[in-house]
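Table S2 (text version). Query chain:
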Amino acid sequence: MGSTDSKLNFRKAVIQLTTKTQPVEATDDAFWDQFWADTTTTVQDVFALVPAAEIRAVREESPSNLATLCYKAVEKLVQGAESGCPTEREKQVILNCTRILSRILPYIFEDQDWRGFFWSTVPGAGRAGTDELDDDDGARPLAESLLLAIADLLFCPDFTVHSHRRGPDSVENMQSIDSCEYIWEAGVGFAQSPPLNYIHDLNRTELLRLLLTCFSEAMYLPSSSDNNVLNPWVTFFCSTENRHALPLFTSLLNVVCAYDPVGYGIPYNHLLFSDYREQLVEQAVQILIVTLEHDGGVPHRTPSPSSMEEQESAGPENLFVNYLSRIHREEDYDFVLKGLARLLTNPLTQTYLPNSTKKIQFHQELLVLFWKLCDFNKKFLFFVLKSSDVLDILVPILFYLNDARADQSRVGLMHIGVFILLLLSGERNFGVRLNKPYSVHVPMDIPVFTGTHADLLIVVFHKIITTGHQRLQPLFDCLLTIVVNVSPYLKSLSMVAANKLLHLLEAFSTSWFLFSVAQNHHLVFFLLEAFNNIIQYQFDGNCNLVYAIIRKRNVFHQLANLPSDPASIQKALQRKRKSPDVISRTSSQETVSMEGSHPAVPAEPGTLKTSLVAIPGIDKLTEKSQVSEDGTMVSVSKGDPTHTAHSDQTAVAGTSDTESNSGRENEDVFYTESEMERRRLSSASSTSFWAPTQEWVHSWKCKLPLQTIMRLLQVLVPQVEKICIDKGLTDESEILKFLQHGTLVGLLPVPHPILIRKYQANAGTAMWFRTYMWGVVYLRNVDPPIWYDTDVRLFEIQRM
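Corresponding structure-token output:
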């Protein structure tokens, strides 16, 4: 029978299924076999030959036929998992059933009445294919049978793994196979790298696609702050019921971290052959990020036993999380970190050696995976920060942030990048590492500078704040918190970076900006705190910043004398109406961008994006810690009055703006972006919403931490002016030389304790991650389009 004939038969069976009003008996094998008998279908064929409208029609008109189709397809997978699919025909049946289930499952999830179907037991069916186990296993829900069959099939010799058979007659028994000997790739906990076999890679990819589809039930539940709803599919698959959990977790992690898109070391090689490994890596990284979920949203404490094998019972119930949290060998950390850095750097290499390597598209998934590694395995986080290897993660993140800043469809990428840097900046070592000179010249649309990685970070942040799109404003707090966190450790800022920081202060301290939104003054507090940290702890070596502060001294004087009478407030707000632009972009001396760089561009019209929930405010996102003399961190209690005066994020806001705070502060309120936009517009029209008052301005103005800078200006400005008059100087280098050798020892106020705001997990960020991650998975799976045009509830799909 030719392939067109068999496709016709398959199509005919689909039509019969939709038109038969009478239930087809489960025993009618001649009918059901038409769905999986064809030897030439692809997953794309199945999607084309089974249209959405027809699946929905069967679901509504003849539900028992849809139920039987699902049950029969799962039964075939269970039988294959038991027999080990010795023949080609059996392997084909498994693949066809896998494709059919991947096609149908989303339509089962979108209908509330069907959602329980896979978790119910099929009456009288027993465990498909096993009669003698009836009493014991007879009651397994269909979902469990399906998940266990997929797990078995992922370690099926000659189908998804290499056979270890000794001779032609020996058979590998699927029930007794030790899958730990069949791990897919060398790396964590496994030394041998099996030979590449593209057929195995393709078969694994098909099964993982079905697994991801099973897990995607999460997309059909609306986002809520009740984060205790665990995904039952993930919970079961990652439990001790799955005997392959450890080898599968290891296989997925190793396949991702060992992947080298350069074409296995040969440049331009990817142009010659299709890379089946890449599709497998994409599915593997997506499975990892959606399975690694917190138990019930409770922040956990990682157990750290001496080895991964011990203490199976300890730690999180989710075995993937459990295994991840217990990786502890330095060489394993090194393998994972080097692998992720290589993949994250890949799109950058593309820019200066076009086509030399294959350009990968899954950097967002890699960033989520990196985040989860740091979150679930604190020792990994410390390993990352132990050497300058962390910079191999930092540079690609800064590249993505800079590149995506004008593109509203990539606002999620901006958030995950900033969250990772916020997490890293909570550790002293990160600030110290930033002092390494930056010499890698990745073409970026930023001013050319000579300096360190700290300069790169500041220049990119300045670019995001001054030329990014409006939707990034909620991230300004995070960006400046990162700058404050690293500031006490920055040995020497370049003139370019110093000028950028002062330009931000200048922009944020205009009266109209300060008076137009209740929280805007926080940005000024952050910048002043960063300046104070550098002056108090790194004065030697930072003559560029000191010089920039002296040159822009009027900004500090204006802040100290900020008028707060009602007339001035009104005048400032009127000025705002004339120039609605957020930040003056002109006063920063814009310099020539790096050679070979491309400007950041908005999304192409028609680009799809998924909506995100709002992130919690920075005070919910972080927890203050004080650095003590010996460098250890002590958590600062929220009510400590000594820090309230410093630059408290909540007390400062005053009482009049409870309304404007409620949206951001209350973690239990989740808005999609379109709702936030509506709220913003309605608030703009109702004047009762929030208005600055004299008392409000005074409540925070008196707390501006200006003493250190005012003292510095008081001491140094007369000296610098004297030099200029005496020597008739207009030359910067002489003044810098003077400042370099100057000292303020004994002249400045007593150094304040260093405050670090460390990221802390909470229900709000957990929900943000879930929404973002599934949005990425939705948009990245377009061939076949697994979830396209189904009734997804976790987020909205928007066209740019």
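Notes on Table S2: The first helix runs from residue 3 to 19. Residues 205-296+316-386+763-799 form one domain.
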